[in-house]
Structures
1.
Amino acid sequence: MHDFRYVNGRLYCEGVSLESLALKHGTPLYVYSQHTLLEHFRKLDSALSEMDHLVCFAVKANSNLAVLSALAGAGAGFDIVSEGELRRVIAAGGDTSKCAFAGVGKTESEIAFALKAGIHTFNVESEPELERINRVAGKLKKVAPIAIRVNPNVNARTHAKITTGTYENKFGIAFERVEEVYARASKLRNIKLRGVQMHIGSQLTQVKPFAEAVAKVLPLVRSLKQRYGIEFFSIGGGIGIIYNPALASGNAAWWRRPAAKGLLTPARYADALTPLLKPLGLKILLEPGRFIVGNAGVLLTRVEYVKRTGKKNFVIVDAAMNDLIRPAFYDSYHEILPLVKRRGAEIPSDIVGPICESGDYFAKDRPLHKVSEGQHLALLSAGAYGFVMASNYNARPLAAEVLVNGTKVCVVRDRQPVEDIWKFEKLPPWLA
Ligand SMILES: *Cc1c(COP(=O)(O)O)cnc(C)c1O
């Protein structure tokens, strides 16, 4: 489900032609659809309406202030993993009392900052962290609201780099140890036990692993509620999206397609989990990132060269792995479409960036209509884990970002000026 579609042979984002944006703002260019973004939030939010709940957007998926501001306006909370992300939420006008602070490596100064900002909870990932939060809160004469992250030791059956809920991973506290840790935490003076949390992985496309994990943790959650009066259970994020539409068919929104039976949708997610969760009588927190923003963004790029070798047809574009690292990092699939629809035969093409790494590709042997220098392509589903993972590798400036709302367009991040890349570098006096 998204608002990127062809109108009279031109690819549009809502009411705006993407070709016009590429020509006006240059490439590489990230473009986000506000309607898609908010629609995904609302779909999930309303699927859970039978329970007291809070959807906390995982800021790490896309932390642009405009994205955060739009979601804050819709009532979202935020899942943050650093002081920087918390500061972004504040800068975007988000509500700190709806922020959950996750991550295995919170520093003392990050903890102090979050305590002063009045966040909803710290999701505690280890016993030493629990002690540290208690100590920092004591110094500030505050009480820190916490949830312990349970590692349920279930396999989410997703990519190895985004599996988090087994004992092979660095996340959370082992299921068997959790009661002991709550007992210990309940004796700490500057800690308030507020909830329990888990997150088993990312890009899950079936409901089963979620249901399994929830079912496994349920008795524990019940006992924690009884003993310590906890208020909430956070079931994490991880709802996957369709990157390759060939995997599902038809023109309807993918979660309505009969061919997509069994695939994860907000309705299926809620149908499977509500009967388990509702009887708990706790507030349910969610931490989705990709589901909300993944299909709400595209990366536009210009074809620089077409290079035919004996074996391959290389389409060399001006975006690279420094702009969007997902294909190189996770072998991920992104649908690639020309901004002006083309006719004729498709040829297997490698769509590659200009960086001196063989990992710098977006697709290999992908059927693509013939394109030539100066034409533009869109890499779809680039809204999550796209711009946020960009780097200056090869001294390439960070791309610009644009938000579309109907026919309105706003540059929500300027293209980085090239001199900014070395702004904080200095020559030592003996070389100057
Ligand atoms: C990354 C992460 C999320 C968000 O994951 P998505 O797959 O983008 O929904 C949520 N919670 C935690 C703890 C995370 O680490």
2.
Amino acid sequence: MVNKNPKVEEADESELEVSKPKEWAAGIPGVTHSMVPAIEHMGVNRTRRTVLAMNQKDGFDCPSCAWPDPHHRKAFEFCEEGAKAVTWEATPVVIASEFWAEHSVSDLRSRSEYWLGMQGRLTEPVYKPAGEDYYRPITWDEAIELVATRLNALGSPDEAAFYTSGRTSNEAAFLYQLFVRGYGTNNLPDCSNMCHESSGWGMGQTIGVGKATVTFDDFAAADLIILMGQNPGTNHPRMLNELEACKRNGGSLVAVNPLPEAGLKRYKNPQKVRGVAGKGTELADQFLQIRLGGDMALLQAVSKRVLDAEARNPGTVLDHKFLAEHCEGLEELKEHLAQLDEQEVLEATGLRIEEIDELAERYLKADKVIITWAMGITQQKKGVATIKEIINLLLLRGNIGKPGAGASPIRGHSNVQGDRTMGIWEQMPPAFMDALGKEFDFEPPREHGADAVETIRRMQEGKIKFFLALGGNLVAAISDTDAAEAAMEKTDFTAQISIKLNRSHVSTGKEALILPTMGRTEIDIQETGKQFVSVEDTVCAVHASWGRVEPVAHTLLSEVSIISRLAKATLGNKVNADWGGFEKNYDLIRDHISRVVTGCENYNERIRQDGGFILENGPRDSRTFHTPTGKAVLTANDLEAVERPTGTLILQTLRSHDQFNTTIYGFNDRYRGIKKGRHVIMVNAEDITELGLADGQLVDVYGEYKDGRERVLRDYRVVSYPTPRGCAAAYYPEANVLVPLDHVADGSNTPVSKAVIVRLRPPRSAETETAGATATVGAGVAAPA
Ligand SMILES: Nc1nc2c(c(=O)[nH]1)N[C@H]1C(S)=C(S)[C@@H](COP(=O)(O)OP(=O)(O)OC[C@H]3O[C@@H](n4cnc5c(=O)[nH]c(N)nc54)[C@H](O)[C@@H]3O)O[C@H]1N2
Ligand SMILES: Nc1nc2c(c(=O)[nH]1)N[C@H]1C(S)=C(S)[C@@H](COP(=O)(O)OP(=O)(O)OC[C@H]3O[C@@H](n4cnc5c(=O)[nH]c(N)nc54)[C@H](O)[C@@H]3O)O[C@H]1N2
Ligand code: SF4
Ligand SMILES: [Mo]
């Protein structure tokens, strides 16, 4: 292993390069872009053992996104983004013991997220005592004892919160929630609270299950796939294979997005000769460049057209049999949509009537329709209601519970869905709690716990004093960065189980602990031999994942080991669980999962089947809807447009091509033509002119939320970009500074990261320089609010 800290160059934002956005995604450049750094960082052997084992049946599950694997695997079952994630994790560079004495926490806090992540893998537990500015290495026994002592000293279990990020395996997640509930709280915030929480509620309340109602094969079998609020070319790259397959089978694709994302337009499949040399496959047949937050209006307008078509030709348009047998609420929906104001729709969407008509015609022509979506839909104030509108549109023509059709939220983290199945949720239903209590002979707490936003609020109020994280980087991922950091610093004790350094290790409680763990790529050997873990992808397929390379250090413990030891030290005999046994043999954990988690019966046997198994899903398998009436519910939802005062813009925060959430791999957003920098705000050319700005100039970006707190991103460069008028985009996590903690989606409490009102002003840095530097900024923009 490489025991020295590499020299890491921070980005020089003044070197920003901008070129035209790309028209196509993937192809050979995608693969070479990933393989060169892989070999450079890991050498040929480690690259071969990791990248080539990725997504193979005897290998490990790609730790990046939650896109599923095909039944028949090729030799290369990965994409550029998967290779980057693996290179970042399996790098042999480790943080040496001396690092901690050389860098104070204050020094580390001045570094960028990129710099922190590039220091290499964490290998030993380190502890920062209260009042000190340095971490120092301690033993595992000391670290475990410290957590147990602090937890057992709290006045109430609800003074602690236990976060989970979606890379954690099913086995670790199951033990973690047992530990937390055994300790006595449901404060189990997770990354899903900031991600697909709106999908869970929108689907749960209408069709009784918050998961996709499609299988992998349905994509290729669909007549029409409508992709909403999603950038698959970067965030789910191998999804493009299935979109291509759908086209090849005669299906069509519609993309609804404010940005003309490369992966929505044209795809060069790196596995095919045509993809290497030719022009690739034309993807979207129709591209609707919608305004931010306009989807709910669009969906209502399309459903209204479907109902109008039925009124013109009674009995021929709706799926009457399905609606009569399986659904309720049709009359209410009809009544509600009859009132729809088309002018309001045009304003909210920014689209032309003909574009909406065309989409409705495409929908009516298709027998099998899938609608997919991701963060462009869920991270909106009306996210839950918008998802209910997706369900409305699908139900009208029976597009749920038949092959080639369905609702498909596309999950983010590779196992975020599995973690929820295992009980990582602050509001698990009573039936789960009953089964858990019975299995382990204890009384689980019944009161709902705090989600991610609520956890920060309770830290602000001094009610949550202890924080433990199983992966992730909550301080950087949650909204209102400054407030979140202050809240975290107000706590007494924070501990992070992590593989690499990040912002959450340097914005800590008074005492802080880092517990390094093994990644999914690494071979996990315990007393009874080699262990595997299991995960669930976005289409409910559960399968095994086997590490394939030597762990970067022998001091590392697996997540299962760390949690078992923490639980044993903290709980003693409070729950009837063989914590020591779990660590030695993960089959024992899976035996418990079989008995507690519905759908996971005979888990050990089924997980060993070729390719794993698919969890049951009522709507998908048998049109069974676990709602109070047993029927799927068509819902009437009131429109609410995003209001934009004059002189402001609606900002969305999104991912570049060189990052995984808060992990920054590099400074290029290749498909969008933005290179060597991240401090940019993408704005429509006409808005740039109207606001009196110049393409390429620096601005300060101010949040307009009126709660007395100043929110600003300084020295951002304006980049002219084909986004709709009035809409802008900037990269997350940096832009989280602008998202207010209280700006959350109705009904899911998810931060509204895709519609923040901002105002651009001349940069403060320029005001102190020559007057000439601000000359290009017009009064309309410069005027203070
Ligand atoms: N390489 C890579 N892969 C990842 C991740 C990563 O960071 N890097 N993150 C993972 C995670 S956790 C997640 S949740 C997923 C996220 O996957 P995405 O949801 O694709 O991620 P975002 O970058 O947030 O992109 C949001 C998309 O929605 C569009 N959009 C924004 N607002 C609206 C709107 O109002 N309406 C419509 N119709 N579109 C809108 C944006 O223009 C953009 O194309 O990706 C996962 N995969
Ligand atoms: N403004 C804005 N904010 C957002 C979003 C947005 O679009 N805009 N997106 C939201 C979404 S969709 C999500 S999912 C959240 C993401 O929130 P998180 O899941 O909290 O963040 P990540 O950046 O994925 O976490 C990365 C860290 O996880 C640790 N890690 C990586 N692999 C492992 C592992 O195998 N085990 C352990 N124990 N640790 C590991 C590493 O130390 C790494 O630094 O952010 C949300 N925040
Ligand atoms: S599509 Fe997602 S899961 Fe598949 S290899 Fe790429 S990053 Fe990994
Ligand atoms: Mo996510």
